[in-house]
Design brief:
- The complex is a heterodimer of chains A (about 120) and B (about 110).
- Helices cover about 0% and strands about 55% of the residues of chain A.
- Chain A has no helices and eleven strands.
- In chain A, strand 4 (about 35-40) and strand 5 form a beta hairpin.
- The model of chain A has no long low-confidence stretch (mean pLDDT about 95).
- Helices cover about 0% and strands about 45% of the residues of chain B.
- In chain B, strand 5 and strand 6 (about 70-75) form a beta hairpin.
- Chain B has about 110 residues and is an all-beta fold.
- Chain B has strands at about 10, 20-25, 35-40, 45-50, 65-70, 70-75, 85-95, 100, 105-110.
- The chains are: A mainly beta (about 120), B mainly beta (about 110).
- The interface of A and B includes residues 45, 105 and 109 of A.
Chain lengths: ~120, ~110
């Protein structure tokens, strides 16, 4: 059974940094593209970033480009999202997902990031 | 890139059908057959229901179907059941290595 468990969320001040992790199990992590998708409280889903299976290709939404960095450790079956220069509008639940062909197959339970002073 | 446009709400009685629209542009919905749909119950993670416009993942009931015409995609839920009450989001590949989600539709089973 595919399992994705996000962690690392919490309360951070504007301008601060946070690193999210997503521990994967139940599938061959090193062969999958992975994504981050976020959802502000009471709002819709927004795609954030993706990385290919070996970590050589990354893409970002314009809203986070230059501030967020996606990475992975295939030996540890873990996906990361380093978030710097955080803003109030980054407040959201962050989900990691496995990627099928232009779709998001499996989702974690999410981790809440709150940016506030 | 702007979010795809969905109606805020839709409803139907048990056994009836409900159709949700998802309107984009020629740069996303109209340009690719990569529209997917997600169901999200309150406090839960989204679940993939439809991909590549019309395909259903294994385990998704055939009451759920998808279609597309031009820049508008649609999700139809036939034979509505109480457990279908949820938020539904469409998503399209938007070119230039990014993805765009819809604004979301709350489906109520009356």
């Amino acid at each position: 059974e595919v399992q994705l468990v996000e962690s690392g969320g919490g309360l951070v001040q504007p301008g601060g940094s946070l690193r999210l992790s997503c521990a994967a199990s139940g599938f061959t992590f090193r062969t999958y593209w992975m994504h981050w998708v976020r959802q502000a409280p009471g709002k819709g889903l927004v795609w954030v970033s993706r990385m290919n299976s070996d970590g050589s290709i990354t893409d970002y939404a314009d809203s986070v480009k230059g501030r967020f960095t996606i990475s992975r450790d295939n030996a540890k079956n873990t996906l990361y999202l380093q978030m710097n220069s955080l803003r109030a509008e980054d407040t959201a639940v962050y989900y990691c997902t496995t990627a099928g062909s232009y779709r998001f197959d499996n989702w974690g339970q999410g981790t809440l990031v709150t940016v506030s002073s | 890139q702007s979010a795809l446009t969905q109606p805020p709400s839709a409803s139907g009685s048990p056994g009836q059908s409900v159709t949700i629209s998802c309107t984009g542009t020629s740069s996303d919905v109209g340009g690719y057959n990569y529209v997917s749909w997600y169901q999200q119950h309150p406090g839960k993670a989204p679940k993939l229901m439809i991909y590549e416009v019309t395909k259903r993942p294994s385990g998704v009931p055939d009451r759920f179907s998808g279609s597309k015409s031009g820049t508008t995609a649609s999700l139809t839920v036939s034979g509505l059941q109480a457990e279908d009450e949820a938020d539904y989001y469409c998503c399209s590949y938007g070119g230039s290595n990014n993805y765009v989600f819809g604004t979301g539709t709350k489906v109520t089973v009356l």
